[in-house]
Structures are given as C-alpha cells and as structure tokens.
C-alpha cells in the first residue's frame, strides 16, 4: 500500500516515479519506503536531544535559532532523501543574498531604506560554519536512524573563517571612535526627527570600531576598576580582569572551590544562560576545567567580598538563599552571567 500511495502521489504531482533500486534497498534494510520532510525530522531530532539531555540546552537553542532564521525557509518541506549537496548549498546562497540586501540598504542615501535594516546583522563566515554544523548534527542523526544514507553537510563549500584581529585601544583609535560615534548619533537623531534614540545601541555598533575585538591598555583597565571598586560585585570584575575567567565561570565560582591557604580557585562550574534563566554547567572547554593560582591582591579582594556577603546573610536572615556561590545578589541568589 505504501508503494501504491507513492506512485499515486507522483502521478498527482506529475513527478518522477520512485526509484526501483532505492525502494528495494530500503525494503531489504527494513526502512520506511517514504521519506520524512526535513522540517518534521528536525523537530523530532530536537525533541529527542531535549529528552536525553546529551546536548547542552544553549546549543539546542542555537540549533533552533539557525533553523528558524535560515534553514526553514529554504527546505523545511524538502524530503530528507533529496538533501543533496546542491540543495544544502541553497541555504548559504540565500544567506549571501540577504547579506547583500542589508549592505545595499545601509549604503542607501534614503533614510527610510537605511532605517529598514537597522538592527539587522550580517551573517558572517563564522556563523555560516555554525549553521553547517547544525545541519551536520541533524543529518548525522538521520544517517544513524537509516533515514538517509549519507550526510552531505560536510561537502558544502564555505569561505574560510578568519578570526577578527584584536587591536589595542590606543589614544588615536579611541579618539577616532568617539568622533565617529558622535557623528553617527547625530545622524540617527536627525533621522528619528526628535523621537527618542538609544545612544547605547549606536555605541554598540561594530561598524564604528576598527576591529570587533578591542583590547584595553593596562591604564584603561585600571580606570575601569577604579570606578568598579564602588560596586557590590567589584570582586567579580577584579577576578576576571586579573585571572582571565569567562563571565559564566566567574559567576559559577563557589566558595568550596576557593582555597585561601593555597591561594587557588578551581574552575569547576559555570553558569550559562538559557532563555531568561541561568543553569549550572561544566566549563566551556577542557582547558578551562582546572585550578588557577591567585595573587595576594586577588585573595584579599575575595576575603573582603566574603565579609560583605556574610553581613548581607545576617541582614536577610531566614530569607537568605544559600547557593554556595561566591558572587550573588543581596539575598544570596546566584548572580547570572548576564546580571
């Protein structure tokens, strides 16, 4: 009956009849003769990984974002057994087309055209590589389930990723950025015609910077810490600045990981953001999972922070939440990486 349904469907759509040898192979292997659509398989694949928990929630969230923004429009309704290399390549061709549209709009002399793409970002080579990795994960699952015979994602051609070159924020570069920022802010305010403009959004624009990665000088870092010292979580800023922890690793640090006598801190956990919530997870890389040495100044800062935290614990009394974290809110609740 399944073969008959496939033949009737082919006649209705005036499509080629199912390949005889392919149907025989699937029958002998005990596979379904028909083929799922990519969109249906993607959803079932994500649901299975959510159930088993074998992939981080943040990674699954990234997969779903790639599907929603890029994959769905191109082949959500394409059969799994039709995902040839040329079909997969269409996703990245479409991305290039959208990138070109954004760039052309940004260069337009028409304020309305420029405004139409404000907030839209170019999909760069690194993101394309991650999108291909999403495809590869899904198609590898399909191969394991014998829904398809080969994973073609790895054959798709993409430009090589060139990491951004880190540049030091020299005095001249800072002055140039400030001038560009003032000019852009004035232009955006003129376009808005008196309506409220977020200066922070303009300041965040990477186009104004000579590189996406700008490195502070020791003097600039010192200036920042001189201001941050008045903050409750100054010890967190100090620890990250002097020992190079990621935000999630700093927020995930526990008092049990801190050895005063040995002057060390074990990087054993990190807090990761999943939607609006934060969850505890393992360090991002194996290299991060280790013990770091602390200088005497950092040890002193952490001890002072513990004294302050103990005072907050007494003030809150029974309402205090004992998370065991070094860096918390006033009530003891863990301070997430986005706090």
Describe this structure in words.
The protein contains 13 helices and 7 strands. A hairpin with a 4-residue loop joins β3 and β4. It folds into 3 domains: 35-155, DNA polymerase, domain 1 (Orthogonal Bundle), CATH 1.10.150; 167-214, no CATH class; 216-319, Intergrase catalytic core (hpI Integrase, Chain A). It is mainly alpha-helical. Strands 3-4-7 form a 3-stranded antiparallel beta sheet. Keywords: DNA recombination, DNA-binding. InterPro entries: DNA_brk_join_enz, Integrase-like_cat_sf, Integrase_recombinase_N. This is Site-specific integrase.
Characteristics:
339 residues, hpI Integrase, Chain A, 3 domains, three-stranded antiparallel beta sheet, 13 helices, 7 strands
How are the SSEs ordered, and which strands pair?
Elements: H1 2-13, H2 20-29, H3 38-52, H4 57-75, H5 85-106, H6 111-116, H7 125-144, E1 167-168, H8 171-192, H9 199-203, E2 214-215, H10 218-228, H11 234-243, H12 247-252, E3 258-259, E4 264-267, E5 270-274, E6 277-281, E7 290-293, H13 296-316
Number of helices: 13
Helix content: 40-55%
Query: What do we call the CATH topology of the largest domain?
Result: DNA polymerase, domain 1
Taken in chain order, the helices and strands follow as: HHHHHHHEHHEHHHEEEEEH
**Structural class, from helix and strand content?**
mainly alpha
Shape: globular
Low-confidence stretches are none
InterPro entries: DNA_brk_join_enz, Integrase-like_cat_sf, Integrase_recombinase_N
Protein name: Site-specific integrase
GO biological process, one term: DNA recombination
GO molecular function: DNA binding
